[in-house]
Amino acid sequence: MVHSARTVTCAALLCVSSLGCEKKEPPPAPSKETASSGAAAPVGGDAVTGGASRAAQVKLGRGSEAGGTLKFRIGAVHEKVDRADAPPWWKGSGDWTVFEATTEDDAAMTVGLKETRRLKGESMTYILFDAVIAAKDGDEGGKLVNSFARAFGVQAPPAPGARKALVPLQVISVVLAEKAQRQKDGSFAGTGGDWTASKWTFEVPGDTSAEMFFNYNLTSKEGEFSRKASSYDPKVVRFLAASLRDGAPLAAPGDK
Q1: Which of 27, 32, 24, 67 is closest to 43 using CA atoms?
Q2: Is 92 exposed, middle or buried (0-12, 13-18, 19+ CB in 10 A)?
C-alpha cells in the first residue's frame, strides 16, 4: 500500500519562498570549471518574486553545470480517475490526473497528480499536490533509473538479486507556476501559456530528502525533470531505484 502525502513538511513550504531553498540545502559539489574560478555551482531558485514579473526556476549563482535535464514525451492522459496500487496504476473515477510518458531514451513511466490544497502567501499562491511516479514492472523501472542516472551524471545503485512487488514512489509536489510560458533562460513566467512548473520533494524519514523540478505541458505533450541542485541527484536516483526497480521502497512521506 502506498502512503498518502497528507503531511506537508515545513521544509516543503519554506522552499517556495522568494529565493527558494538555497539557504537550507548543502552546497552542490563544484564542477572543474567552478572549482578553478572559485564560483559556486548554480542551483535552481524555486520562485523569484517581483509581482507579475515573478519567474520560477531561475538559475542562481555563477558558473554552469553540464546535463541536469531529462525530457519526456507525454502519451495517454487519463483525467478524473482514481489511483490504483497495481499497473496500470489508475482505475474508475476520482480526482487524479494520470498520464503515461516516455523519456527521450525510451524509458516508460506513469505519473499521477492530484491537487490537495491552495495556500495564499504574501507574493504567490502555493499549490500543493499529491504526486506519484510508477513503472509497470521492474525491468521498465530499471530502464527509468538508468535514464535518470545518465541524464544527471550519477551512478545507479546496484540491483538486488531478488525483486519484491513494485509500488509507486510518492512525493510532495508544490506548483511554482501554472499556465506559464517558458522563457529563453529555461525559467517559467507570465500567464497565457500551457506549462506547469513544479518542484518534487522526495522524503525519507530518518534518512534525508532530495528535490527535483518537474515541469510538464499537457497541450504540447512534453515535459522534463530538471536539476534543483547536483547534490540531490544521487539521492533521487536511489529513491527511484528502491521503489520502481527493486520493489523495496525506503519509505514514503505522509501517513498511511
Answers
A1: 27
A2: exposed
* Residue type at position 204: V
Q: Hey, what amino acid is at 57? A: Q
| Set of cell numbers at residue 11 | 521544509
Which grid cell is 163? 525483486
Could you tell me where the DSSP H helices lie in the chain?
Answer: 10-14, 32-37, 138-152, 233-240
Which residue, 11, 35, 34, is CA-closest to 23? 11
Q: Let me know the angle formed at the C-alpha of 95 by 166 and 135, rounded to the nearest 5 degrees.
A: 20
User: Which uninterrupted H or E stretch holds 97?
Assistant: strand 90-103
Q: Is the pLDDT of residue 201 over 90?
A: yes
Chain segment 23-62, per-residue pLDDT in tens: 334 434 433 333 333 444 445 666 655 555 577 776 655 4
Q: What is the pLDDT of residues 108-133, one digit of tens each?
A: 999 999 999 998 877 677 799 999 99
- As a whole number of angstroms, the distance between CA 4 and CA 86 comes to 16
**Which set of grid coordinates corresponds to residue 53?**
514579473
User: What is the pTM (predicted TM-score) of this model?
Assistant: 0.77
Q: For cell 506548483, name the residue.
A: 175
DSSP string, 48-86: E--GGG-EES-EESSS--S--EEEEEEEEEEEEEEE-SS
Q: How confident is the model at residue 250 (pLDDT cuts 50, 70, 90)?
A: low
Q: For the chain, how many residues are written?
A: 256
Boundaries of every domain in the chain: 10-245
For residues 232 and 211, the answer to whether their CB atoms sit within 8 Å is yes
46: exposed, middle or buried (Cβ count in 10 Å: 0-12, 13-18, 19+): buried
